[in-house]
Amino acid sequence: MGEVIHGVSLFNDEDIYLLKEGNHFRLYDKLGAHTLVVDGKEGTYFAVWAPNAKEVSVIGNFNSWNPHTHKLSPRWDNSGVWEGFIPSVKEGALYKYHIVSQYNNYTIDKADPFAFYSEVPPKSASIVHNLDYKWNDQKWMEERKKYNSLNSPMCIYEVHLGSWRRLVEENRCFLTYREVAHLLVDYVKDMGFTHIELLPIMEHPFYGSWGYQMLGFFAPTSRYGKPQDFMYFVDYLHQNGIGLILDWVPSHFPTDGHGLVFFDGTHLYEHQDHRKGYQPDWGSYIFNYGRNEVRSFLISSAIFWLDKYHADGLRVDAVASMLYLDYSRKNGDWIPNQYGGNENLEAIAFMKRLNEMVYGTFPDVQTIAEESSAWPMVTRPAYVGGLGFGLKWNMGWMHDTLFYFSKDPIYRKYHHDSLTFSLWYAFTENFLLSLSHDEVVHGKGSLLNKMPGDEWQKFANLRLLFGYMYTHPGKKLLFMGEEFGQWREWNHEESLDWHLLNYPMHQGVKKWVRDLNHFYRNEPALYEIDFSYEGFQWIDFRDYEGSIISFIRKGLSTKDIIFVICNFTPVPRFNYKVKLPLGGLWKEILNSDAKEYGGSGVGNFGGIEAIERPFADNTYELSLTLPPLGILIFKKEIKEQPLKDFHRKKNKKVVTKSS
Questions:
Q1: Per 3-state DSSP, what percentage of the chain is helix, strand, and coil (rounded to 5)?
Q2: Whole-angstrom Cα distance, residue 333 to residue 275?
Q3: What is the pTM of this model?
Q4: How high is the pLDDT of residue 650?
Q5: Is residue 137 within 8 Å of 310, Cβ to Cβ?
């Protein structure tokens, strides 16, 4: 067991050149632990990047964790890669790298940055593991472009896998990947969501970080099973027509000693200067995006999840913290760039390269930026100066909308602009409207508890919020539990409060969201032109006294037209008149105040006729009954009559794809 065969390598000269250049984006095929057969001997090839090490050895349960038994050798090409083949070390072996630094003989035992599998935390050893799996999602992979297109419906269910549901009766903390796959797919299919987004599934030492303090950039957490179990999870989603988006965190990493920090006795992955290399908000380290090998490491991680796990998209966390050198820092605590500005030029270049490589390799996926500032052109291609993301979370819409909804309706007329302001910038980016986990933690209260009024009004407000969200331009995201009106804040240590579905009001919210999802997916007017003014038209945004807004959503075909009107007060409005560009019967398709959703049943008996009036603007008039704290969604099936003032040339192209 003490034998190490040197001279065995998965690297060639081109690999080393690309690594040094910062352009090797499949390092997971080279670095890490890979089982091989060499000269008829089965074993494992180990390779690790540690350029400032004096010695590197592999320690594990196969050599009693002895650092003197299996020493790796450095490559001759000054790449900083140490490698060696150890016979008889097979799949399932536990291991770490024992590193002796060139500086002060500093020694440390490190987990493998490229490990495919790790021990269940708080244990931290890496595990030799192959990623062999027979996929059964060929149909999805061949057709997923139409599901992930920016011209397609996208309603995302955000999930923390460890707390979505637990088997309390079996006294178990977590469901396995395979168990939750069937339960979650059945639920999501019934509810009508198109995609699931998982809070970071990558291995993370502290469960309370929800995965955002991750160290396993190439390993799904072992808390829920093995890598093949997670592959089964993804496979089963795809077989049932559901896409998967993974949260991914290239912005920072935790300080745990077995991880990336001070890896070879030097600041290898992070900046040495704390003013650039330490994130005070999260107590974590910031990657050195200017180091070529670090860029290769991160982009290889992104490609890995799309390649080996068939993910359909990556949501990149905390982009604003990467863009700005002074993010959450006081004067004197940050270092300006070479031009004296606060822009992180190295991080900007990294993100552009990331998106170029992701879309160049997988043109049918999406990258999504969680970016909370007004940085321009986040979702425009890198070649025109943008960051190259496909979508951006609309944090402004989220903040203003929740601020508005939190107000007692009697005061909402004074904050009407908070409701309408989003349409001034709604088409400057490819926006995704998110009501995420961040809005229901840390004392912020659940969505239901943010709503003012008595219990009936809280539920009515919540249904109105969801209806407004689904008809507003932009793709959609809801966090688990919001769809049935959970009262409590989300707690990652407990299951959602599924027992609430025994109560009619919670069932009503759930049915409302389900009907919204299915209606949204079947109405091109609500998703085909999300990122252009051509898909939206205000009918009336000026009625601040009544706290009422109305607008039209349009599809590529002039036959696809949806009319929406919202009443943000608890007072029903009778004979409320609006002008529309089209006459005839408008069918009331959805009404959030319907009794089946827990409402009072105020509405328009299924539809109403728009009557032509001798107005100067040649429009038609609807006289409506508006329910209290309600949204009405109407549809007009147009056969031959064109929309008046429907300013679109018949064959005009609508450009929405960013990358």
A1: 30, 25, 45
A2: 6
A3: 0.94
A4: 39
A5: yes
Q: Given this model, what pLDDT does residue 259 score? A: 96
Q: Which residue has the higher pLDDT, 366 or 1?
A: 366
How many CB atoms lie under 10 A from the CB of residue 298?
Answer: 22
**Which has the closest alpha carbon to 642: 561, 571, 586, 575?**
561
pLDDT in tens, 515-557: 999 999 999 999 999 999 999 999 999 999 999 999 999 999 8
Lateral strand order in the sheet of 41-49: 32-38, 41-49, 81-87, 73-74
Confidence of residue 45 (pLDDT cuts 50, 70, 90): very high
Element (H, E) at 237: helix 227-239
On whether the 534-635 domain is CATH 2.60.40.1180, my answer is: yes
From CA 404, how far away is CA 469, in angstroms rounded? 13
pLDDT for res 654: 38
Which residue carries 């339960």 as its tokens?
183
Beta strands at 620-626 and 607-612: parallel, antiparallel or unpaired: antiparallel
| The two domains 13-127 and 534-635 share their CATH topology (first three levels equal) | yes
Give the tens place of pLDDT for each residue, 269-322: 999 999 999 998 899 999 999 999 999 999 999 999 999 999 999 999 999 999
Q: Is 521 helix (H, G, I), strand (E, B) or coil?
A: helix
Q: State the Cα–Cα distance between residues 559 and 524, nearest whole angstrom.
A: 10
Question: Is 543 labeled as catalytic in the residue annotation?
Answer: no
- The domain limits of the chain are 13-127, 151-246+302-316+355-526, 534-635
d(CA 366, CA 105): 45
Nearest CA to 151 among 390, 465, 396, 393?
390
H helices of 38-121, in order, are: none
- pLDDT > 80? residue 254: yes
Question: How many whole angstroms separate alpha carbon 373 and alpha carbon 323?
Answer: 9
Greatest alpha-carbon span in the chain? 95
Identify the CATH homologous superfamily for domain 13-127.
Answer: Immunoglobulins (2.60.40.10)
Secondary structure (3-state) at 111: coil
Quick one: which of 415, 425, 353, 342 has its CA closest to 389? 353
Q: Mean pLDDT: which of 140-144, 171-175, 604-608 is highest? A: 140-144
Q: Where are the alpha helices (DSSP H) in 408-527?
A: 416-420, 422-425, 447-450, 455-471, 504-522
Q: What is the pLDDT of residue 362?
A: 98
317: annotated active-site residue: yes
Do residues 124 and 256 make contact, with C-beta atoms less than 8 angstroms apart? yes
Choosing from 158, 203, 370, 534, the catalytic residue is 370
DSSP H or E run through 81: strand 81-87
Q: Which of 317, 429, 439, 534 is catalytic?
A: 317
**Nearest-10 Cα torsion for 262, 263, 267, 269:** -120
Q: Which spans in 380-503 are helix H?
A: 395-405, 416-420, 422-425, 447-450, 455-471
Q: Taking the domain 151-246+302-316+355-526, which CATH number applies?
A: 3.20.20.80
Report pLDDT digits (tens) over 98-115: 999 999 889 999 999 999
* CA dist., res. 347 & res. 21, Å (int): 16
Span of 173-187, 495-509, 639-653 with lowest mean pLDDT: 639-653
**Predicted local distance difference test score (pLDDT) of residue 612:** 82
Residue 237, pLDDT > 60, answer yes
- Give the residue from 391, 394, 656, 372 showing the smallest Cα distance to 529: 656
Check residue 558 and give its pLDDT.
Answer: 85
